[in-house]
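We modelled the chain as a single entity of 222 amino acids. Its sequence is:
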Amino acid sequence: PEPGGAIPGLPLWEEEDQRAAADADAEAPGPSDVRPGAEQPARFARIAREAAAQAEVLSAHVCVSWTRAAEAVEALADEWHPFGPRPRIEDLALRAIARALAEAGVEPGPAGKVIVEPESDRSFAVETPLDEEFRRMVQARADGQAPFERADWVVVSLLPLGVERLEPRLAGGRLAFGLGAGRDGSGTITMRYDSTMFGEGDAGRVLARVRSLVENPYRLWG
């Protein structure tokens, strides 16, 4: 045979492959059966399926200073005393994350909050993390006005334990954040996210904005 040609007496493909190709041709619509543009939705659906199949849970974290957030919490507690709720650093962090997500074009729906303490875990839910009044948001969290099961995203805090870093699970949602505390008021914020929701660059920008807001928290309440 010529270079690159077939060897006489051998098929170019297996008979099963040939039959499968013939069956596919028989089932495919003829030229008159295909509406103009009908192939486009099918192509987009295939692309969406492939993207979902390739989705990954990714992580990114940023180092932060909790010093000014702690100072702000104490100032608010003094201002609201004795009739208002007592805020926590986790309230400010959740507010900062919600603000950063909104600025990135993601609507921050109901949020879950888990605070891990030495003896137990405490869970809360915040229906409107971007409520116009920060005090009202904190009061709603303290009153337990929203069911935790409705949370679209979650913030898990290990601040009371002094653990430096946490990578929380994605339990049915596409976003989770972990708060950790190190020495001298420092710590980390870790973001876990579905890769179909953010690229690495977008996730990095969200975290950078969260750090900026946490370290300058006086812009976070109304």
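As a brief sanity check on the tokenised model: The CA atoms of residues 47 and 211 lie 35 Å apart. The two ends are 83 Å apart (CA to CA).
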